[in-house]
User: Which sequence fits this backbone?
């Protein structure tokens, strides 16, 4: 730093948990790819394999990218908050786009094969999670990323935004677990109970999903790992409150 102060550092243990979370996330994707590639024939659009794009996109979008978006404020602790907000919104937006591709894949696959839609618990939970996730993203962008919302409105909504962010992440993992079980019962119901390799691999994917969720959840709930506000951000926050609420910072 220009004033001779030591450079900011991360709290003890945070970097290790970040590394573990990313290792788990990449392992999730590799395991999903191995399952679909080795046992389900791979992924191809406008073919009998189009359905397989669904689990791949949902694990990538609604779990891995969503989890990373939630961790942005823990990882980028000393960067400008505006830049961190933009990255947070972009990762969530990318997760939404990829998940939408996965949803389109399953509906088109069902239509081609004459399979009914939206009858299972997995489909109900999954669609509800996606719709609420989209609403959460739109509200977050409208209130926190773009100017116009008052300081008091942001303050009142922020706890709800944080709660629903974690809740939707949990719901996403739950929906994936339901989907894995449903797919196994459809595809290998006769041999699943005999501990066949495909069943073991898919069960391992489920365990990895839970582990990723636990690691991310732990990082989000450690109070000392929360991003501290920078001095200039506190000053800007008070100026913004003065402009939008019409009162002095000390009022």
Assistant:
């Amino acid at each position: 730093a220009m004033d001779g102060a030591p450079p900011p550092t991360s709290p003890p243990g945070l970097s290790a948990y970040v590394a573990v979370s990313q290792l788990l996330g990449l392992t999730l994707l590799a395991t999903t790819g191995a399952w679909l590639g080795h046992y389900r024939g791979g992924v191809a659009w406008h073919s009998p394999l189009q359905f397989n794009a669904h689990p791949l996109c949902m694990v990538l979008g609604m779990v891995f990218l969503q989890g990373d978006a939630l961790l942005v404020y823990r990882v980028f602790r000393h960067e400008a908050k505006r830049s961190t907000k933009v990255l947070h919104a972009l990762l969530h937006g990318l997760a939404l786009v990829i998940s939408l591709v996965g949803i389109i894949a399953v509906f088109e696959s069902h239509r081609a094969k004459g399979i009914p839609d939206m009858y299972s618990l997995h489909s109900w939970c999954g669609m509800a999670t996606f719709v609420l996730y989209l609403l959460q993203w739109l509200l977050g962008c409208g209130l926190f990323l773009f100017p116009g919302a008052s300081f008091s409105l942001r303050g009142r909504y922020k706890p709800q935004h944080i709660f629903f962010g974690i809740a939707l992440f949990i719901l996403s993992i739950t929906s994936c677990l339901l989907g894995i079980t449903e797919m196994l019962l459809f595809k290998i119901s006769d041999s699943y109970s005999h501990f066949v390799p495909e069943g073991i691999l898919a069960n391992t994917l489920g365990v990895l999903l839970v582990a990723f969720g636990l690691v991310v959840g732990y990082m989000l709930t450690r109070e000392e790992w929360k991003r501290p506000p920078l001095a200039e951000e506190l000053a800007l926050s008070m100026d913004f409150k003065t402009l939008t609420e019409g009162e002095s910072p000390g009022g």
User: Anything to note?
Assistant: The mean pLDDT is 90. The chain is about 75% helix and 0% strand.
